Amino acid sequence: MSTLREATELRVLIRSAAAGDDAVAEAISRLGPARVAATLVDEMVSRADLGEVGPLPGPVTVRFDLDFDGRTLAHSVSFKEGRVRHGDAGPDAARPVLVELELVALARAVFGGPMAPHALCRRIDWGDVDDPREFMVGVAAAPVVQRLLRGAAGEPARLDELALVNGSDKWGPHFYTPIYERHFAPLREQELTIVELGIGGYAHPGSGGGSLRMWKRYFPRALVYGVDMFDKSAAAEQRVFPIQGDLSDPDFVGGLAGRLGPLDIVIDDGSHACADVILAFHALFPALRPGGLYVIEDLQTSYWPSYGGNATNLHDASTSMGFLKQLLDGLNYEEHDGAGSSRPTRFDSMLVGAHFYHNIAVLEKGRNADGPMPGFVRQRPVTQVGRADRREVTA
Ligand SMILES: C[S@@+](CC[C@H](N)C(=O)[O-])C[C@H]1O[C@@H](n2cnc3c(N)ncnc32)[C@H](O)[C@@H]1O
């Protein structure tokens, strides 16, 4: 299935899950119950941290019996030697544990956001608990089942823990996750489109994607795109779409926004070369929706000549920090009197906030057009405005 079609179908399901039972039922009928069942179980698997389960005595299969419109759809997921796959565990599989749920309720719990009701698990059949052999099968499967169901219970995970679990250096080598948490937490349950420049792993084909997995988990209703110059198709997952391209190529970068549509969050963790940082900002900041956030990591390169940086002239506009510092005056462009000023620049009316931390900046998109302060306040300090002026103002 094409990326666009897959992304569109996921969007339909995610949006319907917040809208109510009837909207979900309609979306399930449109997308196909079997496809929706597979999508929801896959999502629960990705939220289950099954790597935390210790060694198991043998393969475990969990079969979800999902009721929809008078039918029951069965979707199995098996866990064997640390690997998860959809379908049965094979000939040596023990009897599956059965988990019965309503498909609509499950969709609402997985993708509906915090206000949606949790999926009520109708029944778990652990097997014949009076038979010691079957009982032990249930005991072995319990940690897997518990973790799978947690994915439908709206369990919030902290970003630094998710960085560790998913192998992202945003916590540890860097200490970015508390900063991300500060800015991203209010957006967490929203339906979002996120793009991260730089997937990780450089030329190693099977390596990278830790932060994309982290974002997928932190934002349960988001589609997450990653861009890298190397083929990172191995990082593809449900709701995670790697794109290959060179972020120093103006044609490629210029076409990204049209390809991905309006964006909610952009994270630049790519080459960190100053020219690439500025090129991407020009192309992608305007593509953010109002309220969107643009994050630039590793701004230390702004001072390193090998990355196009400059530690001697801190206002050099060809460096990442020099460029960003110029934008700051644009926050107040309506107060510049105009004489000799080249403002407003392209970004002045769309930048509404800027937050700078050690090596990382967060820029907020919006509509910066509140209007200037009244003219009489500009002409002299308010402390010098005489009584007569004040009477005039209040009259
Ligand atoms: C620091 S890693 C990204 C790490 C990842 N965001 C994470 O947090 O796990 C930087 C990535 O940017 C990619 N990259 C470097 N220069 C690039 C360019 N010009 N175009 C596209 N990708 C580039 C590298 O291949 C590398 O995988």
Q: What does this protein look like?
A:
- Helices cover 36% and strands 20% of the residues.
- By secondary structure, it is of the alpha/beta class.
- It folds into 2 domains: 3-150, Nonspecific Lipid-transfer Protein, Chain A (2-Layer Sandwich); 159-365, 3-Layer(aba) Sandwich (Rossmann fold).
- The strands form 2 sheets. It has a 7-stranded mixed sheet with strand order 8-7-6-9-10-12-11, sandwiched between helices. A 5-stranded mixed sheet has the order 3-2-1-4-5.
- β2 (71-80) and β3 (83-86) form a beta hairpin.
- It starts with a helix and ends with a helix.
- It binds S-adenosylmethionine.
- S-adenosylmethionine is lined by residues 168-170, 196, 198-202, 208, 210-211, 228-230, 246-248, 269-271, 276.
- Residues 168-170, 196, 198-202, 208, 210-211, 228-230, 246-248, 269-271, 276 line the site of S-adenosylmethionine (SAM).
